[in-house]
Known about the structure:
Its EC number is 2.7.11.1. The chain has 149 residues and is of the alpha+beta class. 41% of the residues lie in helices and 25% in strands. It is built from 5 helices and 5 strands, in the order E-H-H-E-E-H-H-E-E-H. A hairpin with a 4-residue loop joins strand 4 and strand 5.
Amino acid sequence: MNTTPSSIAVTIPAEAQYIDIVRLALYGIAEKAGFSFEQLEDLKVAVTEACTNAVLHAYGSGQPGVIDVRIDLDNQGIRICIKDDGNSFNYDHTVQQFVSHHLKSLNDVKAGGLGLFLMHALMDNVEVRTDRGTEVILTKRIGRKEEMA
């Protein structure tokens, strides 16, 4: 991996059919950086969840919007910022909801909020900022070569 930081930014319409563009860019960058197949899959799932949340929840029905994605790469790993300027949500309340999911049977759990749970499970660090729109920052450290074997 390069020792100097590099980044790429892409802005897509907040529509489901454009999420693949983000996934393809992410895959190309992370694969060249040396992430393992398993790490690549984790990255793709987490980013897809964050982008899908923006598509489904940020903008009202039929209201146009965009999703800004920035991928930063350095010798430590990768950092992906997914940002929208649409409707935000109460992150603390959502976290409490998926913590309470652990106390219920799977049949009693409602859909929604599990995307955040997946992001936390798959990434090394997840930050969510909801002060103006929503920004999700996903961080994954690259494994050492012996861990990737």
